[in-house]
Specification:
The protein is an alpha/beta fold. The chain is built from 6 helices and 11 strands.
């Protein structure tokens, strides 16, 4: 659902061998999974279920493969979204997806453009870290009307301010995901993709 080619090109630029696929069997064979997306939470889940990809993604994560979700690919990891009431997400992470709501005349929705990310309190740089070499306060490119609210605060990796401080990145075990678009975020975004490609 969306920006597959631009993500593929960015990954190849940092040394990855890639395959764009809608075949669940390919997910069993690959070393890592990148799950980008734009569009509606409900429509995307319907398509994932139709293709048999929802279970294939869950199985990949459960099997310990490094996983990277981008934009909608972050939101779909969670259980529910205000965008699509009654639709269950992948439920890999506990929590919900909420819509930005600001007073009339306040900040615009969608949140669009460059904004900075800061490492969540208590999340220090570790060995083989997905944010290795990414300075705190780096600017990334965002386009979204919804944000994730993880139940487990320890899953939050980065936060960003837009009227509120919202979780803009998560990292839990082999699962990493970001609300922003690293493939559109110049050198610092490519560094995140390179870090993911280099994960063992």
């Amino acid at each position: 659902m969306g920006n597959l080619r631009s993500v593929q090109k960015a990954l190849e630029e940092v040394g990855a061998k890639t395959k764009v696929t809608a075949d669940p069997a390919d997910l069993k064979k690959c070393a890592k999974v990148v799950f980008p997306g734009v569009g509606s939470f409900g429509d995307a889940m319907k398509e994932l279920d139709r293709l048999g990809l929802a279970d294939a993604i869950r199985d990949s994560v459960a099997g310990g493969k490094p996983f990277l979700g981008l934009c909608l690919g972050l939101q779909l990891l969670f259980e529910t979204s205000e965008e699509s009431k009654g639709v269950r997400g992948l439920s890999i992470l506990k929590g919900e997806v909420r819509r930005f709501r600001f007073p009339r005349g306040g900040l615009k929705v969608p949140h669009m453009g460059w904004n900075d990310i800061k490492r969540s309190p208590g999340r220090k740089v570790g060995r083989a870290d997905i944010l290795s070499g990414v300075p705190d306060g780096s600017y990334m490119y965002f386009v979204h009307s919804y944000y994730v609210k993880p139940e487990d605060k320890k899953a939050a990796l980065t936060v960003t301010g837009y009227g509120i401080d919202f979780v803009s990145g998560v990292s839990a075990g082999n699962v990493h995901a970001f609300q922003f678009h690293p493939e559109k975020s110049q050198a610092v975004g490519l560094r995140i993709l390179k870090n993911f490609v280099d994960l063992k």
